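Backbone geometry:

***
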Amino acid sequence: MDRVEKLLPILNKSERVGVLTGAGISAESGIPTFRGKDGLWNRFNPTELATYEAFVENPKLVWKWYLWRMHLIAKAEPNPGHYALAKMEELFPYFLLITQNVDGLHKRAGSKRVVELHGNIFEGKCRFCGKKYTEEEFSALWPLADRKFLASITEEELKGRVFEEVEKGNLPGCVNCGEIIGPGVVWFGESLPQDALELAFDFATKSQVFFSAGTSAVVQPAASIPLYAKRAGAVLVEVNPEETPLSPYCDFVFRGSAARVLPQIVSSLEGS
């Protein structure tokens, strides 16, 4: 495994630093994988629930699944990896954090320059007219989706009174068109937001150092972003406990969790 001390001189001379994160950085916050092990949902295929077709056919079922996921995420807290990246943002004049995660933990940790490629699970999006709702707007419109509320209740209360409300037809209606609003995430079959993609690729090609942290480097198009940075001349750094398809292209590889390695890098930067 590479040593942080070897990377420091490069970082100290750099002004433009980009980071791509994936599910691995949230693992130590207790965020479950997409295919959570909850017996309630084992009979469902996530790739069949997270689609426009499934939502149109059975919005109550889809929303109960998302409220269950939101409940688990709402109870989680940012870990040292999230906080390290928020601190890293303060150390470089030009910095961008690009994430594939929808949990919002980067923003909760204090990161401000964030591009959420796959959206945010606590936001809302109408698939019928295209209107988007921020977390604040959506929770005000539909209190069942409020993050603080979901964090305050038990799983029994979720599966009881919350799911009962959904079954009664208590679903969020779009203020523009009146149709049912869906979660503000990118579903299977949907394109990633073009503006977010363009910003991510543009910054990557101008970065002097680019980190890939906690991502499997297989989900496209996000997996290509670090390679674009490398081809444009950036020093490529991987932080991941396991080898990935990106590993052979990296200049530095740290075989450890983002929650452990990133704080070490930031601490060394602050002390250098």
